[in-house]
């Protein structure tokens, strides 16, 4: 009988301590979504989470009750074993032995392992064990309410603070929930647009202008003193809705022209010229967006550290960072190549982001503020633009230049040698 009670108490103690850690470790956003499912379990979860302090207090009370009963019966059991084996000690030694053995068993079976297990699988276990947890919550409800009232009284009178604080969602919890959802999507499945937008929004605050800009080498521009007919021909040739206007070179951009303004039949390009904003490469795109909205502009010229033109960013580029690619009939389908061609061997377009390659292929390429793409990483170390057929070695990264022009690298073969 005594052993059965001990086992039951250990199971209950494991349950109470586990539910306590599961409740505090579970993703709050996940729980809120589960509570909106409108079924029996969702109603139970709603009742459990409506007052977090009382639920935690109820679990602590249940844990303490189980441990007190366990200690009483475990002490008798240990003394019985000692008497059976003829181990006779003084009262102090008996108490010490009882305490050490009982503590070791309870820590091993009802504290350490359950808490680790419940913390790892917090989201799942809090759903599975919601019903028994609610029954114990109701059982100890009035006792926990009494102790919380005492705690709140002490906090308010002596420490001048409020006891029951509102639990808000954190950015980390939202990020963890989205990561979990993304990891469950198969490669051939499409990610829900809402999940993708949330993920983009979380990453939005860390994206810099240089990460999304149209690089200098891809900017189509026209000189300020060219004719309107030249401008019209360039609009027809490119299919763009905006053309950058420069004076002498791309390092002296004076504005842009929208194709709609050609309907005004301008006499010169300058008469329909719209101004642009100038921003550094390292500025965050959220700040670029605020600046463009405040100044009622549509285009920002991104400057490098020497004041030269590095690229351009438009409102559309920033919106696409949140909502995904917005394609129109004039967008060209440029497919960036990323292919694993063997063990530790890859074929990559140099326009691919270093951060993306590290996350996708676990390459551990060093990331710095001075570059963002794979091509930038190579040029940063070579201090020049390699040509087709060149072999570049940067630590364990061995690059073979597959395609390149005199202005940029296009395609490389990467071999990783440890």
Write the layout of secondary structure elements.
Blueprint lengths: L1 H24 L2 H8 L4 H10 L2 H33 L6 H30 L1 H7 L1 H10 L1 H18 L12 H13 L9 H12 L4 H4 L1 E2 L5 E3 L4 H11 L3 E6 L1 E10 L18 E4 L4 H11 L3 E5 L5 E6 H9 L14 E5 L2 E5 L4 H8 L12 H9 L8 E4 L2 E8 L4 E8 L2
Parallel strand pairs: 2-3, 5-6
Antiparallel strand pairs: 1-7, 3-4, 6-7, 8-9, 9-12, 10-11, 11-12
Helix pairs in contact: 1-4, 1-5, 1-6, 2-3, 3-7, 4-5, 4-7, 4-8, 5-6, 9-10
N-C termini distance: 62 Å
CA-based shape: elongated
Kindly state the mean pLDDT as a whole number?
Answer: 83
The biggest sheet, with number of strands, parallel, antiparallel or mixed sense and barrel status, is: 5 strands, antiparallel
Continuous helix count: 16
Q: Helical content, roughly? A: 40-55%
Strand content: 15-25%
- Element string (H = helix, E = strand): HHHHHHHHHHHEEHEEEHEEHEEHHEEE
Q: How many structural domains does the protein architecture include? A: 4
Class inferred from helices and paired strands: alpha+beta
Strand order of the largest sheet: 8-9-12-11-10
Based on DSSP secondary structure assignment, what is the total number of beta strands?
12
Which spans have pLDDT < 50 for at least 5 consecutive residues? 329-333
Gyration radius over CA: 33 Å
Domain CBS: 269-329
Subcellular location: Membrane
Transmembrane segments: 55-80, 92-113, 133-155
Organism: Flavobacterium nitrogenifigens
């Amino acid at each position: 009988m005594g052993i059965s009670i001990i086992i039951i108490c250990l199971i209950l103690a494991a349950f109470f301590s586990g539910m306590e850690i599961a409740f505090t470790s579970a993703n709050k956003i996940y729980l809120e979504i589960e509570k909106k499912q409108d079924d029996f379990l969702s109603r139970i979860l709603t009742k459990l989470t409506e007052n977090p302090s009382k639920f935690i207090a109820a679990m602590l009370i249940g844990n303490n009750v189980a441990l007190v009963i366990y200690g009483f019966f475990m002490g008798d059991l240990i003394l019985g074993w000692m008497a059976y084996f003829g181990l006779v000690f003084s009262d102090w030694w008996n108490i010490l032995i009882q305490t050490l053995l009982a503590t070791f068993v309870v820590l091993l079976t009802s504290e350490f392992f359950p808490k680790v297990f419940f913390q790892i699988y917090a989201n799942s276990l809090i759903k599975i064990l919601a019903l028994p947890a609610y029954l114990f919550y109701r059982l100890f409800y009035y006792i926990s309410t009494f102790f919380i009232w005492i705690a709140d009284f002490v906090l308010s009178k002596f420490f001048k603070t409020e006891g029951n604080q509102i639990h808000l969602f954190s950015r980390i919890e939202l990020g963890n929930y989205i990561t979990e959802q993304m990891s469950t999507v198969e490669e051939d499945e499409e990610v829900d647009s809402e999940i993708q937008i949330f993920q983009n929004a979380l990453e939005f605050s860390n994206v810099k202008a240089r990460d999304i800009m149209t690089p200098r080498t891809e900017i189509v521009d026209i000189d300020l003193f060219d004719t309107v007919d030249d401008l019209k021909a360039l609009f027809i040739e490119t299919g763009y809705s905006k053309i950058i206007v420069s004076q002498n070179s791309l390092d002296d951009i004076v504005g842009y022209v929208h194709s709609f303004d050609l309907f005004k039949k301008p006499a010169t390009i300058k008469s329909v010229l719209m101004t642009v904003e100038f921003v550094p490469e390292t500025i965050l795109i959220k700040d670029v967006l605020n600046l463009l909205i405040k100044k009622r502009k549509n285009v920002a010229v991104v400057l490098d550290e020497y004041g030269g033109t590095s690229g351009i960013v438009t409102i559309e580029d920033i919106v696409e960072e949140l909502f995904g690619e917005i394609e129109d009939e004039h967008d060209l389908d440029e497919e960036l190549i990323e292919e694993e061609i063997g063990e530790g061997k890859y074929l990559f377009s140099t326009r691919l982001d270093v951060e993306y390659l590290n996350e996708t292929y676990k390459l551990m390429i060093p990331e710095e503020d001075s570059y963002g793409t794979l091509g930038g990483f190579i040029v940063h170390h070579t201090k020049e633009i390699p040509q087709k057929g060149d072999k570049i070695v940067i630590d364990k990264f061995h690059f073979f230049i597959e395609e390149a022009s005199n202005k940029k690298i296009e395609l490389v073969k990467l071999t990783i040698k440890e």
